[in-house]
Amino acid sequence: MKGEKGQSMIELAFFIPILVTFLIGVVEIGLLFHNYIMVLSISREAARAGSIGESDEEICALIAEAKGALVNTYFLKWEIGEIEIETPAGRVVGEPIGVIIPLRFYLTFKYGEEATRFSVPVTCVMRIQKA
């Protein structure tokens, strides 16, 4: 009977680090999706602003204001790259306007060393309603 009690403690000692690592991974992946959805929403707002006649500077200011919603963690760091605003035929009613926001994130590990960088372009296209 006493040997079984010690065995349970050993099993628990092996299982807890695995469980904690799994839970941290779930939280990090949840924050990854949160940030992606936030940038997708920001790009949608920026494209909407462009479709109703806002200037490029006002669109960039809107994006810069909303950047504070991104959540950095110990392992994941986020930044928004250079914003592209595409209007192939100029600002003509009925033509498309596209906002491309490059979302860059990188994983960090021990001592804050950068390990891997990823870049995901987040795009939203709308039709211009007012010139």
Description:
47% of the residues lie in helices and 27% in strands. The protein has helices at 2-51, 56-66; strands at residues 76-80, 84-86, 96-108, 114-127. Strands 1, 2, 3 and 4 form a four-stranded antiparallel β-sheet that branches. The longest helix has 50 residues, at 2-51. It is elongated and about 80 Å long.
Keywords:
single chain, 131 residues, four-stranded antiparallel beta sheet, 2 helices
Identify the quaternary structure here: single chain
Helical residue percent?
40-55%
Give unreliable regions as ranges: none
Task: State the major sheet.
Answer: 4 strands, antiparallel
| Cα shape | elongated
What average pLDDT do the residues reach?
Answer: 86
Order of helices and strands: HHEEEE
- The overall strand count is 4
What class do helices, strands and sheet pairing give?
A: alpha+beta
If you compute it from the alpha carbons, what radius of gyration comes out, rounded to the nearest whole angstrom? Answer: 22 Å
Question: What's a quick, concise take on this entry?
Answer:
The chain has 131 residues and is an alpha+beta fold. It has 2 helices and 4 strands. A hairpin with a 5-residue loop joins strand 3 and strand 4.
Describe the protein's topology:
Elements: H1 2-51, H2 56-66, E1 76-80, E2 84-86, E3 96-108, E4 114-127
Antiparallel strand pairs: 1-3, 2-3, 3-4
